[in-house]
Amino acid sequence: MSVHRYNSWGRTRQPKNLAGSHGAEVSTSTSDPSVVTDGYATENQRYLHLVLDTSTSTNTRTVTVYGWYHAFGVWIPLVDTGGTAVTIQAISTKAHKIYEIAGVDRVYFKIDTALNANDEMFAAGSTFQGS
Predict the structure, then answer these.
(1) What CA–CA distance (Å, rounded) separates 52 from 2?
(2) What's the predicted TM-score (pTM) here?
């Protein structure tokens, strides 16, 4: 007898870490994305949750999020459904933002300058906005 097993594709109430297990950081790069396998699959989640922790450094860091749509076949800097650029910036603090990214297949995180050793970047997706 087969047993139905839920997979990760579908509606999620709790934000799901795009890098894998809870607590895993996403990779950032100072270069633009170039191939479809760059970045992380969104699993068609509606909201993107971002956390940038630069509390151990004194430098401003800005991360711009690029999106990949299979329908278009190109990477583009993302804007959310309200027209706001999907970015996060922090200087000596922890920053948290939530963006609506409905329809984006993959996301990529381009940072202006490389993170310091103790800086951290996290990203998760969810179907429901949460807080």
Answers:
(1) 43
(2) 0.88
Which of 70, 66, 65 shows the shortest CA–CA distance to 50?
65
- For 1-119, where are the E strands, in sequence order? 16-17, 40-41, 47-53, 60-69, 74-77, 87-91, 94-100, 106-111
Distance CA 2, CA 5 (A): 9
Rounded Cα gap, residues 80 and 36, in angstroms? 20
Task: Tell me how far apart the alpha carbons of residues 113 and 66 are, in angstroms, rounded to a whole number.
Answer: 16
Enclosing domain of residue 122: 16-23+39-126
106 closest CA partner among 31, 15, 23, 18: 18
- CATH code assigned at 81: 2.60.40
> Residue 68: what are its φ and ψ, rounded to 5°?
-115, 130
Q: What is the pLDDT of residues 49-67, one digit of tens each?
A: 999 999 988 888 999 999 9
The CA distance from 97 to 13, in Å, is: 17
